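User: My instructor asked us to take a sequence, write out its structure as C-alpha cells, and then describe one feature of it. I'm not sure where to start. Here is the sequence I was given:
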Amino acid sequence: MSDAPDYRETVFLPKTAFPMKAGLAAKEPAILAQWAADDIYGRLRKERAGRERFILHDGPPYANGDIHMGHAMNKVLKDIIVRSQSLMGKDAPYVPGWDCHGLPIEWKVEEAYRAKKLNKDEVDPVQFRAECRAYAEKWVAVQREQFKRLGVMGDWDDPYLTMKFDAEAAIVGELLKFAESGQLYRGAKPVMWSPVEKTALAEAEVEYEDITSTQIDVAFEITDSPIEALKGAYAVIWTTTPWTIPVNQALAYGPDVEYVLLAADRKYLVAADLADAFIARTGIAVAERSSAMPGRTLAGTVARHPMHHLGGFFAKPRPLLAGDFVTTDTGTGLVHMAPDHGEDDFLLCKANGIDPVFAVADDGKYREDWGWLGGQGSVINPKFNAPDGPICSDLREAGALLAASYDYKHSYPHSWRSKAKVIFRCTPQWFIPMDREIGGREALPVVESGVEGDTRGHAQGNGPTLRQLALDAIERTRWVPEKSRNRIHAMVEGRPDWVISRQRAWGVPIALYVHRKTGEYLRDTAVNARIVDAFKAGGADAWFTADHQALLGDAYDAADYEPINDILDVWFDSGSTHAFTIEARYGEGVRANLYLEGSDQHRGWFQSSLLESCGTRGRAPYDAVLTHGFALDGQGRKMSKSIGNVVDPLKIINESGADILRLWVASTDYFEDVRIGKEILSGTSDAYRKLRNTFRYLLGALDGFDEAERLPVAEMPELERYVLHLLAKLDAELRRAADAFEFNAFARALTDFANNDLSAFFFDIRKDSLYCDAPGSAKRRAYRTVLDTLFHTLVRYAAPILCFTAEEVWGTRYPEAGSVHLLEWPVVDTGWADDAMAAKWSRLRTLRALVTEAVEPLRREKRLGSSLEAEIILGLGDAGDRAAVASVPFDEICIVSRLSTAETDGEGVTVIVTERHKCGRCWRHLPEVTQDGTLCGRCDEVVNG
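Assistant: Let's start with the prediction itself. The C-alpha cells for your sequence are:
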C-alpha cells in the first residue's frame, strides 16, 4: 500500500490568500485609512454627479460624551441605507451633523464651574459661551472618529454643526421668517420648568419616572353659597403637590359630578363616588351623609384659603368654578386651582378673570416677598412637601389638613438631563402658535419637492394654521413603518403651542426687538437682514455684543426697543437643519428623501423639523421618515450604568470588529426595540463566519479564472441554470428590501442564499467537478462561470452591510481595481428566472433531503465512511418524480455511488453499502475502478491525457 500513487498534486484545490480568520479589529483601521487616502467619498460624489439624488438627512446627536449603542445602531443603519442607494447608482451624499447648543453641553460646563465653586451667572456670557463652544468642539472631534470607526462614510471634513456661524445665521433667519409672518407671540403660560437648570423645557426634553409623593386632603371653608347648607361647610381638595397650595386661587368642581355633604366634626363637601375613599384616608367619623347634589348647583359658591389669616393675597375669596376636566378617578372630586402651575388651572382661571401671580422663582423657591413661606423651597424637595414639612405643618396648625401621607406612587416628569423633577411654572415665554391662521398664502412660498414630478407639500390647499399644515404634511409623507404615522399624527393633533424660548446662555438668541410701550415685536425685513448678516460674520455672539442702534438703523431709536436675550429651543435649531444643510448645499426647495431616527423623535426632531418647515415653507422637509426602536440588553432591559448592563459599541469594535456590529444591526427587526448581548453577538459572529467562508470558497475556487473559460448560460447544465434562477430571484428580493429599507429581510435573504443554496447545496455538489474535472470540461467551466457571477453579485450585495469585509474580498481578487464601494448594483439577467425549472428543482431538493436523511444514520454508526460509499434505491410513487430524477445525474446531486428509482406506493429510501471500488483520486466508487486506489475513467483522462 505504501507504493500507491499520490494524486494530491493532480487535484485542483481552491487557492486564496484570503484568510479564514477575519481579524477585523486589526484590519479595519487600515481599510479606513486607505479609503481616506483614496478619497472614496469624494470620488463617489464625482462619479455619481448628475444621477438621481438620494438624500438621507442626518439627525444631529448632541456633541457630548462617547457614543453609545443607540448612536452606533442609528449611524450604521443610516450608512447601510446610503451605501445601498449608492450601489443602486444614485448620488447618495451623507452629511453628518451635530447639535452643539443647549442644555446638555451647558450643563456639563456648569458642572465644571460647580466643581470649582464658581457661579455661572457671575461669568461674562460671551466667555461662558466660548467655553461651551470649546466643549462641543472637543466632543465633535471625538465622536467623529468613533462614527468613522463604525465604517460610516460621509462628508466628515465638512459636517454641519449648529454652532457654525452660517448655521446660527440660518437658524435666526428661520426664526425671523416666523416673526415676519406673524407666527410668534409672547405670553405667560404654565410650561415645563426645571428649577435645577432654571429654564423652560420642551416635552421632548422631559422623561417620566415613577416616584412616591406626599398626598394631602385640605379643607377650604365655604363662606358663601346659593345653597344654604353649604355655608360654613368645608370644600375638600386632594393633591400630590402640596407646594401649590400657597399659590391657590380657586377651586374647581365637575358640573356633572354628584356631590354630598358629610357631617362629622364639621361638614365636608366631596364627590359622592369618592366619599368612602375620603373617609378611609382621613379616618373621620361621619354621622350623616346628605343626598347627592349636582355639581352645577355649586355655581356661585365661594370659599376662603386655609391661610386667609395672613391677609393680602390669601384673604381674597376663592370661587368654586365649573371645570369639565374634573373627574372622580381619584381624590375628592374638587380640584384646587393654581393658575401658575397647571394648564387646566391656567385656562379656567383666565376665563374667570384670575391671573397668575408668579409666586415661584426660577430656582423653585417662593419669592422673598411672598406672604407664606417666602424665600423657602425648593418646591421639588420631598422634605419641603413631606407630612411634617413646613406646608403641611402650617396647614395642620390652621386646622385645614385632614390627611397627609408619603405613600402615593405615580409617574412624574423629570428633566432628561439633570434627572431632577420639573414643575409647571407660569413664566413669560415666546411661543409659536399652532392654531393661529398664518397670514395668507402669500406668507408661505410654493416650493417644489426635490423629487421630480412630485407635487406634494405645496402651500396651496393646505390648512391655514400650523397645526393643519403639519397634519396635512403628515398624510403626504411616507412613514416606515406605517404605524408610526398614527403616532406622530396624534402628537401633533394634541400638542400645545410650541414654547421656543429658554432662559439659558448657550444657543441662538431670539433676536427680536420688542417695543417697550406697545409690547409688539419689530417686523422689518431690512432690520432682519442686518441681524442675519451680523450672525454670518460673528455668529450668535454678535447679538450679545451688538450695537443695537446699528442693527436697527436710522428708522428706529434703540432706546424704544428691548432686545430679547432668551435662547431658542434647541429643537428649533435642529428643526432648521434642512435649511442650512439640505437647501444650502443642494438648492432652495430641495428636501430630504429620508429622515431616520429612533421612535422618541416623533416628539423631537421629526416633529420640530415638520413644524419649522411647515411654518416657513408650507410642507414637510422630508419625503419619508423611518423610525427604529431602542437597543436593549440581552434580557430586554434598558441599558443603565447603575444596573451595569451597558453594552459598549466601542468595546465590540475593538474586540470583534465593526462588521460584526453592522451585521447585528442589519439582522435585527430594528423597527421594534432590539436586544444585544454576548449570546446574541455570538450568533452574529457565527453568521458572519459562514458568510466569510462563502467568500473564501469563491475566491479559492475562482483562482486563475479568466474570460476564455466563461461558458454561455445556454450551454450550462441545468443545475447551474437553476442556481442562476435562484440568483435572479434573490436579486429581485434584495432590491425590494433595499427600497423598503428592510435590511433585516435583506440580510436574512443574503445569508440564507449563501448558507442553504450555495454552501449546503451547490458548492457541495460541484466540489467534485471543481477538484477533479479537467480544466477545460464544460461542467467545470459552467460551474466556475456561475461562481464568477456569484462573486460579483454577492460582494456587491454584502458591501452596504459588511463594508470592510466586502472591501477585503474585492481587494483580494482585484488588488488594483479600486474600491468595491465605487461599484454599482450588479446586472442580473431577469431571463435567468425559470419558474417551471425551479419547481422541478425544488422537488429534487426535497428528494435529496430524503436521501441524506436516510444516509446519515449509517454514517453515525460508522457503517459508511461517507455518502460516496452508499448506493440508493429511491422508491417513488409519482411518475413525475421518477421522470425528474431520471432527467438529471441524481447520484451526483445526492453525492452517492449509485442511485436508482423504483415504482412504489409512496416514498422510501433503501441504502446499501456499495461493493464498488474507490477511485484513488476523486474517491468516488465507480464501476470502471478495478481495485481501490486506481483511477476512474475521468481521472485517468485528466492525469494521463
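For the description part of your assignment, you could build on this observation: Residues 440-463 have pLDDT under 50 and may be disordered. Try explaining in your own words what that tells you about the chain.
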